[in-house]
Design a protein that fits this description.
single chain; ligase; alpha+beta; TTLL12; 659 residues
Length: 659
């Protein structure tokens, strides 16, 4: 209460909160401490480094930590010497590297021979040492001395390993249970460039706050309270909204205020109620699947005819004027027929790196590198909605749910997987961020449901069997150009003619560590975007990749895989140009604007183990600095295809696959 009293005194106003039919005065408000404030990506490390916190959280979450049993050898305390065999009788047996080092050191032999001895003795260290150091004529006293010399060390090692395993298991339990207790709030930080951005903190209230139960008709409200004075301190405040009898339990509504739909409320509460509404939520998912099978397909509207010029003779006698706010475009524009200008009004071609809003100010004949409503493909939740509405379930797109609107079918899908013994493994992403920001892989339902509380998120089925390159996970970045021109020049009523093409050069992004379905916190094992952090970045030309890939997978031809990738990309943009806004790019009234448009997108593709391509996402205004280093004509080719006045279009088209 001290902080609230100080606040009320310093502002010289009576502090109260208004609630329907009730006034909440200062004396009715209670402060609750926060036992732990964390972030999901750092919480495990914090727990491993803080045994007192682990002990407190175990008590709060009713997690029992069983006493450790004494660790003994499976076959007792050693066995007699078996001689000095050097040939392994059990070469497939895995032995601990630390034990190999110990036997090699104590037995004064090479690690190879020590490993062989351990394999011959089924991992028994004492027996392995005896086979290396004792002969059949050694007496029992010699054996006892050997056991005394190393037995204590081995026991200590095993006890330490058992303690470490128990510690890890306890932390795993806390990491699993914490989502049922955690709350979250956002705060603003200023990054080194001076930009303000929002970050999220997760916190667990103390024993009093964490003991509050959920109720559909709660008697209390609980909310975070951040005090900023000489320092910053976070608390929660609790105040009653109903009369509470003496000894009565305090309750609050666990469900965020933005969730009002009854099915979504049940889906959110599924992590607390042990499957109480599982059958109903599974039915929601199954109904959703039935709707996917009722999709009517459409014709793909692209044309492969690219006009050599749509400009008048007068315009052909001067340079193409380009205005850009995109640094890599300004730096790499080398065509003699292109002139950089300082004013949008002067420009024939406008290329922006930021969202452009003033389309109504564009004049006839100008071209711009953006489409109205292209967020229909560049925002992850919109792309998923477009694909689902146009095709239903398709092999080239991962099953995706928008947690803001599709929480119920997602939870139903998760529970259906459980019921049918399918492994649940999902990747959770913000729908409007790139560069791998705030992406996590989760197996449990609770964090997937709760992560929606920190902002708009999607979840996608994680690709559990990706094609690997030399044992590592990879994805491919393609640059795709979508161009729209009027069917009849100067007559917007005729609508657009669309061309779609993929740049033949693509980029390979490799994980740094070998892939396996474990250790999902290991970024370098499960993710491939390495050029925005302090990670090692593997540089690999696409031609070398194709050569190596076909050697590793001798029964696969890249031309066939590439054709499937192109078809998947074509399917996305076919839907986009056909569907009207807001689902797609099509004009609402069927009338095209007077200006012309193009855009380049960064398309990320992965391959499943059968080489089935999966389009992971479509990125707006990709940074192509690296592309220009690999191919000095990269930008020139794009500019020429967009407006043939820039250069030799026949030469430029050789760099593209026109779809």
């Amino acid at each position: 209460m001290n902080l609230l009293n100080q606040f009320a005194t310093s502002t010289q106003h009576q502090f109260y909160l208004s609630f329907p039919a009730r006034i909440i005065f200062l004396s009715d408000i209670f402060l609750v401490d926060h036992a732990w404030t964390t972030k999901p990506e750092t919480s495990r490390a914090q727990l491993l480094d803080n045994p007192q916190l682990v002990e407190r959280l175990c008590s709060m979450m009713d997690i029992s930590v069983e006493a450790e049993e004494e660790v003994v050898d499976e076959e007792g305390e050693g066995s007699g010497p078996l001689g000095g065999e050097v040939e392994s009788k059990n070469p497939d047996l895995e032995v601990d590297s630390a034990m190999v080092e110990l036997v090699a050191s104590q037995g004064n032999v090479s690690e190879s021979r020590a490993k062989t001895a351990l394999q011959n003795e089924n991992g028994d260290v004492i027996a392995a040492l005896m086979s290396l150091t004792l002969h059949s004529d050694h007496d029992a006293e010699g054996l006892r001395k050997l056991e005394d010399a190393i037995g204590g060390q081995i026991k200590q090692d095993k006890e330490a390993k058992a303690a470490e395993k128990k510690k890890q298991e306890t932390v795993d339990r806390i990491m699993s249970e914490m989502w049922k207790y955690s709350q979250t709030y956002e705060y603003a930080v200023v990054d080194p460039s001076g930009q303000t951005k929002k970050e999220s903190a997760w916190y667990i209230m103390d024993e009093v706050g964490s003991a509050m139960a959920h109720s559909e008709t709660p008697n209390c409200v609980c909310a975070p309270f951040i005090y900023v004075g000489r320092g910053t301190v976070s608390y929660s405040i609790i105040y009653a909204i109903e009369d509470i009898p003496k000894g009565g339990a305090l309750t609050r509504d666990f469900v965020p205020a933005d969730i009002t739909d009854p099915e979504m409320r049940k889906a959110y509460l599924a992590i607390y109620n042990d499957g109480e509404d599982a059958a109903e939520l599974i039915a929601v998912y199954e109904s959703d699947k039935i709707e996917d099978n009722r999709i009517t397909l459409f014709d793909q509207p692209f044309t492969k005819t690219l006009a050599r010029s749509q400009s008048s003779a007068t315009e052909l006698n001067r340079k193409l004027r380009l205005y850009t706010t995109t640094e890599w475009v300004a730096t790499n524009c080398k065509l003699p027929n292109v002139e950089l200008v300082d004013s949008e009004d002067q420009a024939d071609l406008l290329w922006f790196s930021q969202d452009f809003k003033e389309f109504d100010k564009l004049r006839n004949g100008q071209r711009i590198n953006q489409f109205v409503n292209e967020s229909c493909v560049t925002f992850k939740h919109n792309l998923a909605a477009l694909v689902k509405a146009s095709y239903g379930t398709v092999p080239w797109s991962s099953t995706t749910y928008n947690l803001s609107t599709e929480l119920a079918p997602f939870v139903g899908h998760y529970l259906w997987n459980q019921e049918h013994e399918h492994r649940n493994l999902w990747i959770c992403k913000p729908w409007n961020m790139a560069r791998g920001l705030q992406i996590t892989i989760q197996e449990e339902l609770a964090p997937l449901v709760r992560l929606r509380d920190t902002g708009p998120k999607i979840v996608q089925e994680y690709i559990q069997t990706p094609v690997l390159y030399e044992g590592r996970k990879f994805d491919l970045r393609y640059i795709v150009l979508l161009k729209a021109t009027h069917k009849v020049e100067g007559d917007p009523s005729q609508g657009y003619e669309f061309q779609l093409m993929v740049y033949k050069m693509f980029w390979i992004r490799l994980a740094n560590h070998p892939f396996e379905l474990s250790d999902f916190d290991n970024y370098e094992k499960h993710f491939t975007v390495m050029n925005y952090g302090s990670f090692n970045l593997t540089q690999l030309l696409y031609t070398k990749f194709i050569e190596n890939f076909e050697k590793e997978y001798a029964d696969k031809k890249w031309t066939s895989i590439q054709a499937d990738i192109n078809e998947a990309i074509k399917s996305i943009f076919s839907a986009a140009v056909v569907k009207p806004q807001p689902l797609g790019l099509g004009a609402q009234d069927g009338k095209a604007p007077e200006y012309e448009a193009f855009s380049i997108y960064g398309i990320d593709v992965m391959l499943k183990d059968d080489c089935q391509p999966v389009v992971v996402e479509v990125n707006f205004s990709p940074d192509c600095t690296r592309a220009c280093k690999y191919d000095p004509d990269f930008l020139n080719n794009i500019l020429t295809v967009v407006d043939p006045r820039a250069g030799n279009i026949d030469k430029a088209l050789q760099a593209f696959e026109v779809l």
